[in-house]
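Subject: Sanity check before I submit

Could someone independently write out the structure tokens for this chain? I want to compare against mine line by line before I put it in a report. The sequence has 529 residues.
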Amino acid sequence: MAPKKTEDTNFTNMVVGSISVTVVLLLILPMIFVVGKDTYYSAYSEGGDTKVEALAQVTDMRNTLSDDEYFIANTMSTPMLVNDWRDPHRTALMIIGPEKPISQTEADSIYDFVTKKGGKVIVAADGTNANRLAEKFGVTFFDAPLNDENQFWLEYEAGEAVSGSWLNVWSLAAVSEDVNEMSLAHQRQGCKDVDVFEENRLNCRLPVMFRSPTGMKYEPTAADKSNPGHRDVDILATASSSAFIDIQGNSRADDPKNPAPGDLALIIRIDYSNITTFDRVVTDSGNIVGNNVDELQVTGSIVFVSDEEVFSNRMWDIAAAKNENMIESCEQHTGHCWLDVTKETLWEGNEKYFSLLIDDMMEHDNKELVKSIREDRSEFQIVFDESRHVTGVISAPFIESMGTVVLLTSNTFLKWLVVLNVGLLLLVAMMVVPEKENWRHVFDLTRFKDRPQKLDPSNYRIRVQQALFTKVRVHYDLTRDQMAIKPPAEVQTMIGDPRLVELAYSQSRKYTPQELRQLMVAIRRWGKN
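---
Independent answer below. Compare away.
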């Protein structure tokens, strides 16, 4: 019995040890991966101990949108949740500075969010972490910084220009028009305050500052070729024709390994119109849900920006930008000034342009939507995707676990894959658990671990003999001690049956399993007559 208990103890220790190691790894590994790393481009982190870390957040952007009375929220797990949000056509997802690559499953969910639910998305990155999502829309991010010798801004000290870098790029951006298709007169027209106030966002451009952006390329997808009118693609801002991607890291425009295609985009907007959803509309005629809820045609929009720093605290507000050696003008530039194109259009921080862009993407101008919603910005949600950023050491295990749960439960394929794996584990467990021995029937589930191993066939005769002696002892009402002191001759007389006497005392007789089964039948019948 001791070896049996030892085996059970070892098995239990192995199971408990495996579970413990797994739990420890799930807790420790996420902490190891994020230790020593700072969170950047978060709408909720106030930054670290340095000024640089504080300026590399997007809290000022969040505050601006909150002051504009939008409902502000965040997702900490995964953007796969977007299609489960309330009123997706009135929700804008902000993926700014993804420090982790967007997975294919997440990209599929965001694609459906835009093209099927009418959601709004802004993706800002200066690398390839967003490429799985971008490629679904025909957009590709380069994996190296862009240099532009004709559109770069200078840094100033005491009002005097002190330095400039081809990495510090500026561009004049439209809100909803392709700058390559605008007339020359409209390209030279800046968006005045009165135009913004009157929601006149057409035929004008605003300056936007970039800091070490990458470039983007757009190529038509197969759907564009088969159905050219199914969406509207607009290049809102571009680099100059002399810009190049500094893959070699030498800042040399004459290096043939640094591609300079001449049409590098900085901001790309893609709109999908006539998406059917449900919301409160201006009339209740023919509504099928009630409370003026009926079908509504909305537009799904996604904007790709080639630099996350355009949204940072450093460049969002003009006051903060001035503290970092930037100014609203470029008059000291020599041939590299946006004021040479749009007269009297000063840069007032990137806040002005992107606030106008977000306002234009939303359904504020949808005349089918009931006015009480259309004009109330608190009915529209701005959701910052915090799952793409490095989290705190303590919160990392929780965030990663939550993201894994969402990933496994939100995706149909993965959900059924988990169910299949659980079924296989149960099947393996059923095959590994030893069978109950033939002579022991324990129906106490609490004693499951004490279940013995399968009976060794070499012990069959011994167990049949023991069954015979027990039957004789019980029949004559003898104790075990009384039965033990009986002489063999007396026991043979008590048994009476020659076949059973031979089973009890013969040392040379060999029995087949079939003969032992016949003897068992004889033992059960013995003593009844």
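---
OP: Matches mine. For the report I'm noting this point. The chain has three domains: 1-32, 36-146+209-327+346-392, 457-525.
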